[in-house]
Amino acid sequence: MSFYSCYRSEIEPKHLIFNANCGEFSQGVGYICNLETVGKIAAEQGYQNINILWKQLSALKTKLELEGFAHNKNFF
After folding, report:
1. φ and ψ at residue 46, rounded to 5 degrees
2. Alpha carbon of 3 to those of 6, 9, 31, 33: distances in Å?
């Protein structure tokens, strides 16, 4: 089963870069959660790693000047 969704933002390079990095963030969180689930890393280490990924994504958003990018202002 495949799911498709439309890209719902203006097609600009900075939006595409941020979208790609959101996907990488999501994939990284998935890996970290899986490692924690199977006992390869501790919960605190997983939290710290996810926090690092979040800070990197937030810094990229600021760098790309995407202040109004998310519809929900509380998202970032």
Report:
1. -60, -45
2. 10, 19, 21, 23
Q: What are phi and psi of 58, to 5 degrees?
A: -65, -40
Tell me the average pLDDT of the chain: 84
pTM, 2 dp: 0.74
**Structure tokens that stand for 59 in this block:** 């810094």
* Buried b or exposed e, range 5-17, using 16+ CB within 10 angstroms: eeeeeeeeebeee
Tokens of 27: 């994939």
For residue 72, what are its two tokens?
């929900």
